[in-house]
Structures are given as C-alpha cells and as structure tokens.
Amino acid sequence: MTIENVSPLASLGWESSWATAFAVGVDTLGIREAGSVVPARVIAEHRERYVVAGEDGEHSAVLAGRARHTADARGQLPAVGDWVGVSHGFGDGTRVVRFVVARRGAFIRKTAGEATSAQVVAANVDVALIAAALSGELSSRRLERYLALAWESGAMPIVVLTKSDLGHDIPSALAAASLAAPAVPVLAVSAVTGEGIDALAAHLLPGRTAVLLGSSGVGKSTLVNRLLGSAHQRTAEVGDDGRGRHTTTHRELVRLANGALLIDTPGMRELQLWTAHAGLDAAFADIEALAEACRFRDCEHEAEPDCAVLDAVARGALPVDRLESWHRLRRELAYLARKQDERATAEARGRIKSLTRGLRSHLRDKYGGA
Prior knowledge:
single chain; CATH 2.40.50.140; Rossmann fold; Ribonucleotide Reductase Protein R1, domain 1; 5-stranded mixed beta barrel
C-alpha cells in the first residue's frame, strides 16, 4: 500500500524528536538566519560526495570544510541514514553538509586491515536484517559477530536465510541459526519464489529504517529488488556452487512502497568488532543468563569452581564452540580497546608536539636565536 499525504521529510523517517536534535545542531553553529540550514537525510555515499534528500528533493552534497576539520575520526563523518543540516552551496544545486545531527545509534565496524579506526556502515537504524545464504555453509560464528554489532547499534536484529528455493535442508539451517541467535527472529526467504517475503515485510514498518547486511553473494540485491517490486539494484547470476557474485558497490537508502526505509550495503568480506560490549552481552544472552548462577560474580567461565556456564557445557546444554566464540570475541574487544587507547594517546602527544613546535617558532621570531 502506497503511503499518501506524508511530507517528504516524514517519508524519510523525520519526527519531532529529530527536530529537537536538529535545533541543537543549528545552535551549535551559531546560525540565526531562518532557513539558511535545513534538515536532510543522507541516502547515498560515494567516496567524499553524498546524496541527501529533504523537503525539496534529492541533491548531491559535499561536506563543509569546517565540518570536515572537526570530524577527527571516521565515525564522525556523515554516513547513510544520518540526518544532517545542509545549506545551499553551488550554482549546480549541490548542497553543503554543515553538521551531523546527533545519532540515535549506528552499526559500526572496525575498518579492514591494520588501521585502528571505525567505519559507520549505517546510522539511525531500527532493524538490522542479517542475511546468510542457505546455498552456502552457514557460519554461526559470523552470525554472532553481526548480532553483537547489531545489538550494539540499538537496532532489532533479524536473521534472514536467503535462497530457500535452492532446496537445501531448511529445518537444520533454521535450528543452527536460532542456536546462534537466541530470542532473535530467524526467517527463510526466497526472492525468486516469494517464500517468506510477507513474514519479512511484516518487520518493515512505515517510517522505520532497516539495514540489510551480509557477506558478498548472499542475494541482498535480489532481495531488495523483490521488496521494492522493481529491478532497482543490479544483480548477477548465481554460479554453479549456488553463490552469487558481489554487485552492490555503495550504501544506499531506498523507500519501500509501504513507507518503510531500507539501507542496502555492499557485501562484507571482513567483519571486525569495534565497540560492542553491551551488544556482545545481548548476542550471548544465554551465556549471560547462565552466569547468574555462577558462584563468583566475576566468573570468567574458564576454570572456576561452581561455574554454571561450564556445567551447562558439560551437560550438553550449551555448545562448547559457542562458549569458545564468546571468549574469542571478548578478547578481540579487549585488544581493540587497548589499541584505541594507544591511538588516542599517540594523537594527544602529536597535538602537544605540534603546539610546542609552534610556540618555539613564535619565540624564535619574537626574541631571535637559533
């Protein structure tokens, strides 16, 4: 059903609470001219350029120099799903992003490679659709990573098992996914036959934003096209092994006919955690519940006496590989926390050295000397 009589901003998810947060951003800039900065939502990102949508339609946009200067970390730059304040910029209609409205949450991962920095995959999402193909080997450990980051973002995760039309053992896959995602809806869908699409669409509500996440080739673009009812996203044929080829090259927010909003993302070959301590607790809620019965409040579930978690493993009530995954992800978060602290310390030292060099130069100019 098409949503009618809805303002352009409201169709993008705008509501009164966003208006309040936007006003704070305008006040921070010190701009007093009415209408000089207006709200818009980032609906696509292409390297250093963006596409924003607002009351007057869609426009290309660039980040203002002042805003870029203050964005001292990747996580502070605009991302798809962000609400931003924009002003008129150039004669060709390009808008200038002046600030990012304070986020309600974001799906954030560590950037690929050795660099210790964050990448915002999608901002201000309500539902995280985690896609995995039934035609491939279902990785419970990868699902757990996605779930930890999804819970940390503030979104409600839903596991979507795609390509159910290819005839694989669906009951077993549903059981395995449910074990890795306790208390999370798990759906088997086919973008070809339409199986499970209505059940999935029931979670996509007008004015709410979902993000579609998953590895390359799991059929995300085909699923987006099915939900849209049109060939909006380019797709590739499935190979003999049942795996698709990566086709989505950038993140983009699209509007569904019922008024729901969906952010499609490129396939992720690498998914490293960033900050997800609360998300990890939620993703492993079964272990957290068992831990309530441990003798020691700070039990590490390794070799402590009267550990309820280890007892559950011994009884076969908790798979040992799930506990091992919990330990592994906790160690990864602890390592990242140390690296982030080291980076912050190095950056602070760099700023102090820069200030010291400037002061010395100023004193030499003023008083002379080598």
